[in-house]
Amino acid sequence: MAEAAHLRNANGRRITFCEAEAASDEPYETGIARTGCVPTRANLHDLFNALIFLRFPRAKAQLNRLQSTAIARDGVCAVRGPVRDAATLIDENAVLVVTERSDVIDLLRGHDWPALFQSRRAAWAGGVNVLAFGHALLEKLQRPYKGITAHALHIALAAGSSLDEIDRHMAAGLDERLTPRDLMPLPVLGIPGWWAQNENPDFYSDPRVFRPAKMRPDRKAETDS
Questions:
Q1: For residue 50, which phi and psi values (nearest 5 degrees)?
Q2: Whether 171 contacts 62, CB under 8 Å
Q3: CB neighbours (10 Å) of residue 76?
Q4: Per-block mean pLDDT, blocks of 10 residues, the chain (225 long)
Q5: What's residue 73's pLDDT?
């Protein structure tokens, strides 16, 4: 399928899914950037990774470019820098929130769960499209539990946009300014239509899952005074 789709990485190398044993001693992301070979084990985690490559080839290529460039510049450190950290979070655990509704994104960023999932519930039926992107997230969803929380990346397109449009837009927006602050926590089983139990409003009353936004220290000081 990769060959038929002419998949390429950011360096123009043909993407192939090779045996895990074919990987060299260099970092995973660097090897993909240099050779186009994606080491793939016979498990769900790596299967989902391959499927996301096929669905979003440009975005995956750009994430690999950001990660490999950061490694070449900084080396493999105990603590990843902001670009590599954010790229890894997207790669492993992201959902894409495709919408032109800024009100929904504002509520999501502010952790206003009652308004987001109840007052604006109708918006999710046609104005918002959520797509799983992270391959580790897809693996978790094979055995769903209430606390699964993704890192949401806003894609400012119409909810009905094609996968190709979403892929192009996402890839164009991923650059060296990327940081984890660009991502928003989203408990995915709260998304209307994703889990039957969330039809009951009480589903959202669990503060361990639907947590309030963290208050900034300066704002807390004002409140305490």
A1: -65, -40
A2: yes
A3: 12
A4: 94 94 84 95 96 98 96 76 95 98 97 96 96 98 97 98 98 97 98 96 95 62 38
A5: 86
